[in-house]
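Reminder to self: tokens first, then the designed residues, so the page reads top to bottom the way the pipeline ran.
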């Protein structure tokens, strides 16, 4: 097998696995009237982790980003959803 064929084979396996994963797990989409619609996909991801009770440090480690970046995202989420505390994010 040539190197090019090996790469092509590996990529086709990955695509096939991704397709199976997408078929197995229905993607949850916010309804148009939900406040989370205003959030970017990354902000939605962070809001979910904040809602689970993770600290900024834990979120930073989970997503391989800095704590400063997490804090910035949390501030934006609070502003967009017109909330005053992290605790309110989980109930939104």
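Designed residues (92 positions):
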């Amino acid at each position: 097998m040539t190197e090019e064929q090996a790469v092509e084979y590996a990529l086709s396996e990955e695509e096939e696995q991704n397709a199976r994963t997408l078929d197995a797990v229905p993607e949850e989409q916010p309804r148009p009237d939900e406040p989370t619609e205003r959030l970017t996909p990354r902000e939605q991801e962070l809001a979910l982790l904040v809602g689970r009770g993770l600290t900024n440090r834990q979120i930073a480690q989970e997503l391989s980003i800095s704590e400063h970046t997490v804090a910035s995202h949390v501030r934006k989420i609070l502003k967009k959803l017109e909330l005053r505390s992290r605790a309110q994010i989980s109930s939104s």
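The two ends are 53 Å apart (CA to CA).
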